[in-house]
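Sequence only, no structure available. Ideas?
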Amino acid sequence: MTTPARTLRQAAARTPDRALATLLATLADAADHHPAGDAGLVATITHPAIAVARGILDEHEAQQPAPAVTTAGKAAALGMEPTDYRRYSHDAAMEQVREAARGLYAETGQRVVDALEQPAPSVTEEPEVEALTAAERQFLTFALDLAFDEMVSTDGFTDEDHAALEKFKRMAAEEPTR
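Reply:
I predicted one. Tokens follow.
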């Protein structure tokens, strides 16, 4: 909690009027020696001065320009370097995209599961293949790009994994023949 003496000193430091600053500082010194509930001459003078001091402080705050919203400012507010903040904000944005895409992943995944559960067509019978829509191809390409990013940044993927990913990318890019 801010004491009356502290409020008076803060206002004295911020007022441009030297005489008022001296008066507020003197009243702050007097307020140090008399508790807030104390009656008498000091209390009678100090309490209205506190109202004036609060007005000066409010006016000073209102005159302060709003801080510029920059990458450096956002990084400083989080205690980060700007390059770390850029990485952090990129990762946060990617996580938001992943969260939004979960339903789309589930739908596409369910279509794959449904296709796998159907009996394999006979060799003489031409399989009926449901072509991907343009939106599905676009989403599949996006998912494959995310998989590529993960494979590049994480160890443990083999050459076969990379080859399979490239094959899927080519398949997603192909227009349906029917």
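The chain has a mean pLDDT of 75.
Hope that gets you unstuck.
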